[in-house]
């Protein structure tokens, strides 16, 4: 398999993540207690939480049960602020090595710091979001190995 196969499209980022929730109003409130976000839009059964050039889509569903493998990695500017909010809200972590937690509907959220991952926002997007973020040395090395020195 070739990285540059002209017959196949290449993934270049995540546009959005869609999660099922049991109660849309409760979900918007839950995520609003943890994160500062703009509500992009809302219908009777869906809400869209803006994350700059991406979004989190919440859809009301009546399904129950937790899929242990289902999760998404959410990049944040300041994991310490989120850790404080999780403590204030009484939300436990799934392991002691990170900030993984579940929302009330069983969706696993894995928190990662922007500075530690290869995922990179352009200067224009960072500026538009009012963020001044950099990368750790290890993240810069990983990007440089791919010819993407930030």
UniProtKB/TrEMBL annotation:
Q: Taking every annotated instance into account, which residue ranges of this chain make up the domain VOC?
A: 13-127
Q: Which residues form a coiled coil?
A: none
The lineage's top-level taxon is Archaea
User: Pfam family of this protein, just one?
Assistant: Glyoxalase
Q: What is the protein name given in its UniProt record?
A: VOC family protein
Q: Which organism is it from?
A: Halalkalicoccus tibetensis
